[in-house]
Amino acid sequence: MNNILAYAGIIASIWIVIGIYIASRFYPNYSHSKQFCSELGAFGSPTQKLSPAINNYPLGALFVLFGYYLIITHQPHLPTVAIGVMVVIHGVCTWVCGFFPMDADAYTPSPSPSCKIHTWSGLIMLVSFIIAPLIVTFSSFYSIPLRYLSALCICGCLYFSYKLTKALELKSVPGLYQRLSYGFQILWLLIYSLFVVA
């Protein structure tokens, strides 16, 4: 069973790309560059029910299972346990983001309570997958290549998060920068997962 759980991180890294693509096919004129991933599950969207069903809920489970695997198999090593906790938190917040949709208008000046919960959960997701690679970066337990790759993924995530805030101000292509920012986090998860199963 533990061997199966070890691959949950790899599966999640692939699943998220496929899931978003599939959901977008059922959303007429959806723009990956201009619209957020969460708009697929927003109030009133054509894929409001479909998107969390094929993305948030299974992905949340995969994150939680992988985090649980790290916690139970590396109990003597606190840094890895802490990474496992961050992955579990990421998974739980993925569920929360699916259960509490964002508003149809991403730029609304008066977001609904559901949208506020969604936004805060998304922020926690972002932070959890910054803390986790930071732990790897500064832990001598891990190989030098993995530590450098983790640091690179953090820099990529932070850079495109900054670009995302600017794109939001300009109402230009926030979807593109959201995908690049989160893409570096998912890339880190994939690299780290491959290290774990190697």
From TrEMBL:
The chain crosses the membrane at residues 6-24, 54-72, 78-100, 120-142, 148-164, 176-195. Pfam families: DUF998. InterPro entries: DUF998 (IPR009339). Keywords: Membrane, Transmembrane, Transmembrane helix. This is DUF998 domain-containing protein. It comes from Alteromonas australica.
